[in-house]
Amino acid sequence: MFESAELEHRLDRQKYIRIVPKLRADLLDTQYDLLEKKSFQVLLLINGVEGAGKGETVKVLHQWMDTRHLNTLASDALTEEELQRPTMWRFWRALPPRGKIGILFDNWYSEPILQRVYKAIRSAELHRRLEEINRFEEMLAQEGALLLKFWFHLSKEQQRRRLKDLSQNKETRWRVTDLERGLQKRYDRLRAISEQVLEHTNTANAPWIIVSGEDARFRNFAVGKTLLDSLRKRLSIQERGWHARISAAPLRERVDNIDVLQSLNLDQRMTKAECSELLEKWQGRLALATRRPGYNDRSVVLVFEGMDAAGKGGAIRRVTGALDPRQYYVVPIAAPTEEERMQPYLWRFWRHVPRKGGFAIFDRSWYGRVLVERVEGFCTDADWMRAYAEINDFEEQLVGHGAVICKFWLSISSDEQLKRFRDRERTRFKRFKITPEDWRNRKKWPAYEAAVCDMVDRTSTDIAPWTLVEANNKYYARIKVLRTVCERLETALS
Amino acid sequence: MFESAELEHRLDRQKYIRIVPKLRADLLDTQYDLLEKKSFQVLLLINGVEGAGKGETVKVLHQWMDTRHLNTLASDALTEEELQRPTMWRFWRALPPRGKIGILFDNWYSEPILQRVYKAIRSAELHRRLEEINRFEEMLAQEGALLLKFWFHLSKEQQRRRLKDLSQNKETRWRVTDLERGLQKRYDRLRAISEQVLEHTNTANAPWIIVSGEDARFRNFAVGKTLLDSLRKRLSIQERGWHARISAAPLRERVDNIDVLQSLNLDQRMTKAECSELLEKWQGRLALATRRPGYNDRSVVLVFEGMDAAGKGGAIRRVTGALDPRQYYVVPIAAPTEEERMQPYLWRFWRHVPRKGGFAIFDRSWYGRVLVERVEGFCTDADWMRAYAEINDFEEQLVGHGAVICKFWLSISSDEQLKRFRDRERTRFKRFKITPEDWRNRKKWPAYEAAVCDMVDRTSTDIAPWTLVEANNKYYARIKVLRTVCERLETALS
Prior knowledge:
Two copies of one chain form a homodimer. With about 500 residues, the first copy, chain A, is of the alpha/beta class. The first copy, chain A, has two domains: about 240 residues, 3-Layer(aba) Sandwich (Rossmann fold), CATH 3.40.50.300; about 220 residues, P-loop containing nucleotide triphosphate hydrolases (Rossmann fold), CATH 3.40.50.300. Helices cover about 50% and strands about 10% of the residues of chain A. In chain A, the strands form two sheets. Chain A has a five-stranded parallel β-sheet, with helices on both faces. In chain A, helix 1 packs parallel to helix 10, helix 2 packs across helix 10 and helix 11 runs parallel beside helix 20. The two termini of chain A are about 50 Å apart. Chains A and B meet through helix 1, helix 2, strand 2, helix 12 and strand 7 of A and helix 1, helix 2, strand 2, helix 12 and strand 7 of B.
């Protein structure tokens, strides 16, 4: 991996002075072009061995380009709010919007590599994380982000000379920290591990770019030129437009009439009085569960999906009725805002990921991607088809951080929906809930049903199963939701 | 203050059951009305003595209204990210957007009252904070927010009975904490201090509403009814439209030609070579200052304002040239986004307040309110006239938390601007910077000059002074900016 980078790469001063002005002008031009078109965001990942000039080259980029539209993330330690949430939360927070360039020093490669060098994790765990990273980067790339992963390299001898130089100079001595000295001692181990990491994460959509770190002029020019060429290439592709190639078979050919929704008996029996009694019981148990000592190390994420008027709001209120308003929050999902549209689609859900001890209720959710966006054609087939795996990855991260996820599909029949629409039109304060769009959606019932079946098949996992709720009888539905939340939380805490 | 609340207020069960359904329906209706119109946000501040049913009543509100559009803030302890920034940052973060209702248990009254009860602060400090709160609330009200401040009251005897009841019941025992027992012991002191606080913050725009806490039905109905009536009244006023009354004299009658801008000698002398030499000196000093141990307890906030082409970008680059890209961030201010337009105008700047050790550079800033918004008529006269004091309050909070603020007005002559515009049109990669709007703004030069003079007079304070920079000679300007930042930071650190 590092063979070419260890050759003698130099750029002499005369030549540098001659070629840099054009590069700067072009970079700036291209940066403004990107800013104006807002068609994608750019992420520069800066990694490599100590002393290879990472900081210096990024500083030069800041001089060459418009620093106002470069966002640099480099916090040394995780803040408490970050520790309270899955690892990737901090990177989602730091993502630049479309049109801007983000520079990540401290990125998703830093921790796994360091931990492996210092033997805090085993090789298998490292590879599990690399797999996670590959999937994450693939998702970013598919969402349109341009990823440039730079690895700044020095040979062992080059590094030794370089750190010696820095230590001997009064003005740069502060930069050589204990961590760096420690890493120098472990050069061979770091090199071997990095090589593994780079090999396993060198994907078509996000390849590594190895930069020889010894000569500053060579290094700066190489990074600048790579950035320029990638930006230009990507902008020109964007202009021509392109279509993703789909080689997959269509998800569902309907041969018979048997599917997970058809197999439900929607008309369950429960009276209001029975419901009241059970409500009291399960709300009491849920309230108790959220006060158990282990609860503060967990979090709860509830997802409510269902056709219009399926009773999501009513079911949510029966859950929140058990909780103190200070504990939970409800996230109603409507059309994304301007800021949200400038980001990958999962970004607006990552914003609301609860901290430990938090209880988040999503009224509609990330599943919009494979439901309304699919049915209405708001995204391409390729987009929603890849979403199943992306969503599973997302939920896996939540669960890995202690979240208990319950996902509910509230299922009503088409007749029941019609009845409820008409009821609502008659009652005064529910009137606001029926819009012309609701009537339009109703016509697409079969398309939605197919989408729901695919969704359940592909995203009902061991760690985050779907619960299909027979909801023609709202009392039955509310109790089933409440009982499910309660039992899953109790199991998690025991 | 508490006389009426200590009388026997009761609502009998029969009557409650009869009148609540209508209240619920009306509340829900009104909530949807607010949500649809998005004309203002609502803040419910929930304060009062322990045991007076604050949590229970808020829970009832959640049952009565659509919980999806109620945001409740109640974190017990400050997170690390909050501790790193001025106190009010966490409340700005928690502000609901227009159309929504926020419920703040833990609000700006909680800490001052508790601290005074436990004698952590003196009376003078309490009153200083109340003064700050009054100004903050006045600003929120002027920005359109509807503030409802509820105080839940119990007499000493009522509280004693209530806490005893709670302690004796197995299911509610957990709610009586040590803090609550401690506060019960200090009832008289708490009552006296609360009375003071309420008297001093009982303003026309944000009066206190005292709720007798003993009877749950009375309490719930009283709060719900107050909320409903306030919402309705405010929505109807909003519909009729209204105009702020301005009784102030116009800010500036031009009698002679002497003002702070006219008195500058814009054409200072400095050659490129002189600049290079000084640049190296001051950049070195600035770099050194940001590495001093005390620096991590401070933060730096730079504000750059100036006519188009005044050289803000160039000056900013000379400052950032001294810094590591990992240390600073530049916030370019353009038109507010959709989410930002749903909030008071200072919200979008609070978002970017740096943590301790942070270095934030604003390329244009909150001064847009008294410059472009004033000149272009984007806000009313009343809005920009009150902004001077609001901005001073904002900066005072930053400085109070350790920030060093430097504000630069880069001053060029009209001729110099014209020359630069033409230059830019000729050079390839600067072309993007000239827009038709720039030419339009140029025609309003005198109006901008008047606005600048007012701004400097009214917001140049001891703690956050304006530095007027003679900028026809860009070399001179850059050095003056850099030197000012450096000297102010050095002074702050010594």
